[in-house]
């Protein structure tokens, strides 16, 4: 028996062996964007972010909000429209250009002196700054720290071998009083190789637990035809709130 229920009340799979060594290269991500293989994109924004906006913002205004591995998430525009400063990072320049084009937002491009080859695409209004580079090129000395994080399609898109590095980086970007909303996915990892990768709750605890309090908030059924074609019979999104404790 390799399964038991976790705090989120979903089946916990221990048989993640098929995914552990899987590596998706940056080139493969760029190809997904070119081939329009972007079923992860939510045209209407993410319902869980909408629902837990108050948890993220805590009634505060003018926050710095980070979208790691941002794609062209429409919620970036929504938060910027509310007066927050949004920073994203994404390897696909195409994704970032589509974001600005689809929202009719004028923007400018500039190199990032600290990161060779990277570009920063910034809305003319100044409150959306999207870095075109790998997440691993960033550090708090380049982007500063953040009050809020929306991690959806991010930790679960990171190659399993890079998770520790990713989580450690995120912790260095957290302001003392920040709120980090983390969305993971739950499905049978023996049936689909990922991405998105299945990240067991036990691993979230080991990645973030020594620096953060981790609170399970909600799980939602996100099963669709796409997942059925992958050979799955269920697919959940699971939301956690991380708060820095040390
Ligand atoms: N968070 C977005 C996109 C999810 S898909 C959403 O919810 O819609 C994951 C995205 O991460 C892809 O757009 C991919 O191009 C990007 N990506 C993959 N590896 C990356 C890396 N190392 N650094 C930055 N972006 C990366």
The helix tally amounts to 10
Q: Please list the strands of the largest sheet in the order they lie side by side.
A: 5-6-7-4-3-8-9-11-10
Low-pLDDT residue intervals, each spanning 5 or more residues: none
Largest β-sheet summary: 9 strands, mixed
Q: What structural class is derived from the secondary structure elements? A: alpha/beta
Order of helices and strands: EEHHHHEHEHEEEHEHEHEHE
State the separation between the terminal residues, measured CA to CA: 36 Å
Per the principal axes of the C-alpha atoms, what is the gross shape? globular
> How many β-strand stretches?
11
Q: Could you tell me the mean pLDDT?
A: 95
**Oligomeric state of shown chains:** single chain
Work out the radius of gyration. Answer: 17 Å
Beta-strand residue fraction:
25-35%
Helix content: 25-40%
Which kinds of small molecule does this entry bind, naming each only once?
A: S-adenosyl-L-homocysteine
Can you walk me through this structure?
This protein is an alpha/beta fold. It contains 10 helices and 11 strands. Strands 5-6-7-4-3-8-9-11-10 form a 9-stranded mixed beta sheet, sandwiched between helices. Strand 6 and strand 7 form a beta hairpin. The site of S-adenosyl-L-homocysteine has 18 residues, from strand 4.
């Amino acid at each position: 028996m390799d399964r038991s229920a976790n705090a989120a009340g979903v089946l916990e799979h221990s048989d993640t062996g098929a995914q552990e060594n899987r590596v998706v290269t940056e080139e493969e991500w760029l190809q997904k964007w070119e081939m329009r293989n972007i079923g992860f994109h939510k045209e209407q924004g993410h319902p869980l972010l909408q629902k837990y906006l108050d948890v993220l913002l805590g009634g505060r205004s003018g926050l710095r909000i980070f979208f790691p591995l941002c794609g062209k998430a429409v919620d970036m525009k929504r938060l910027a429209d509310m007066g927050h400063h949004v920073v994203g990072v994404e390897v696909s320049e195409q994704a970032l250009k589509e974001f600005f084009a689809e929202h009719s937002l004028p923007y400018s491009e500039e190199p990032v002196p600290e990161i060779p080859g990277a570009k920063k695409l910034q809305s003319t209004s100044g409150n959306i700054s999207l870095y075109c580079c790998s997440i691993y090129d960033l550090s708090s000395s380049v982007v500063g720290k953040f009050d809020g994080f929306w991690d959806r399609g991010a930790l679960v898109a990171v190659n399993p071998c890079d998770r520790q590095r990713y989580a450690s980086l995120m912790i260095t970007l957290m302001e003392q009083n920040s709120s980090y909303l983390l969305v993971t996915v739950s499905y049978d990892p023996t049936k689909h190789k990922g991405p998105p990768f299945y990240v067991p709750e036990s691993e979230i605890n080991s990645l973030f637990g020594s620096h953060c309090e981790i609170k399970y908030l909600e799980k939602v059924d996100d099963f669709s035809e796409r997942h059925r074609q992958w050979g799955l019979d269920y697919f959940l999104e699971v939301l956690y709130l991380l708060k820095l404790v040390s």
